[in-house]
Amino acid sequence: MANEKGPIGVFDSGYGGLTILSEIQHMMPDYDYLYLGDNARAPYGTRSFEVVYEFTLQAVQRLFDMGCHLVILACNTASAKALRTIQQVDLPKIDPERRVLGVIRPTTECIGELTHTRHVGILGTEGTIRSHTYDIEIGKLHPGIRVTGQACPLWVPLIEGREYDSPGMDYFVKKYIDQLLTRDPEIDAIILGCTHYPLILRKIRQYTPEHIRLIPQGEYVARSLQDYLQRHTEMEERITRGGHCRFLTTEHPFSFNEQASVFLGRTVNAEHVQL
Ligand code: DGL
């Protein structure tokens, strides 16, 4: 199995990673993909470092066991809290030839070109914001940029609970954006630092002043992955090509299928998996 080719694994706590998957598939439609949503244990955003790390490692291990050589953590919370430890501690023991990549780095690399005022806002889960991963990464690459993070703890539960069109969603979207812009009125670019947020992009746009650029991550992650595969042909050669995508969820497949079909605009037939 270790030498056989396999699909690209894409992992998220729930539905959010679909926003990354669709951009990756759009840019690289020929590869096969295996998506895993840990919907039964979402949200991850309010969970401790130890728990997010443990859950993420279980998911990565499962995707490896199912033949993936490369796994994308399409989840900022997992990228902020678990990626480094998995890369540095676990991968050398599991299989040094396999790779796990996150979603934070690709966006932070591009942010320098996307702000004029050099004041950037980050919207994310409590876990992502508290980890200060964005501030640290942006600080390393673009030392002159001021970063202000705003945790939006109720957005993911509302999205996972399919309340994205409810008045409650409007209330909390406005509340967190107002809080962010009160803390730094000079912000002219906001990174949607949670893969769930593009699912409510319309609402976020509605409550954000027009001159502020909203930056979903999908396009940047997809471009960075394409670039990675061009530079690492040994990995590229280990990916199967057929244009197929298989979906796994730790919740009941029925609700996943319904939701994922709406988000992706095509029929989804997920399988249940226990981690
Ligand atoms: N979509 C994930 C992220 O990018 C996780 C959200 C959650 O489970 O709280 O952070």
In short:
Helices cover 46% and strands 16% of the residues. The chain is an alpha/beta fold and 275 residues long. Helix 5 packs across helix 11.
Report on the architecture of this protein:
- This protein is of the alpha/beta class and 275 residues long.
- It has helices spanning 17-27, 49-65, 76-81, 83-94, 104-110, 126-131, 133-141, 155-160, 167-183, 201-206, 218-231, 233-236, 253-264, and strands at residues 8-12, 33-37, 70-73, 99-101, 119-124, 146-151, 189-192, 213-215, 245-249, 271-272.
- It has two domains: 8-103 and 219-272, Rossmann fold; 105-216, 3-Layer(aba) Sandwich (Rossmann fold).
- It has 13 helices and ten strands.
- The strands form two sheets. Strands 4-3-1-2-9-10 form a six-stranded parallel sheet, sandwiched between helices.
- The longest helix is centred in the first third of the chain and has 17 residues, at 49-65.
- The radius of gyration is 18 Å and the shape is globular.
- Residues 12-14, 16, 42-45, 75-77, 125, 128, 156, 194-196 line the site of D-glutamic acid.
Which structural traits does this protein have?
4-stranded parallel β-sheet, 2 domains, 16% strand, alpha/beta, binds D-glutamic acid, globular, Rossmann fold, 275 residues
The profile of the biggest β sheet is: 6 strands, parallel
Number of helices: 13
End-to-end separation in angstroms reads 20 Å
Q: So, CATH architecture of the largest domain?
A: 3-Layer(aba) Sandwich
SSE ordering: EHEHEHHEHEHHEHHEHEHHEHE
| β-strand amount | 15-25%
The CATH C-level class name of the largest domain: Alpha Beta
Residue windows where pLDDT falls under 50 for at least 5 positions = none
- Mean pLDDT over the full residue set: 96
Radius of gyration: 18 Å
Number of strands: 10
Helix content: 40-55%
Q: Can you tell me the CATH topology of the largest domain?
A: Rossmann fold
Query: Are any ligands bound, and if so which?
Result: D-glutamic acid
Number of domains: 2
Query: Order of strands across the biggest sheet?
Result: 4-3-1-2-9-10
Structural class: alpha/beta
Described by the principal axes of the CA atoms, the overall outline is: globular
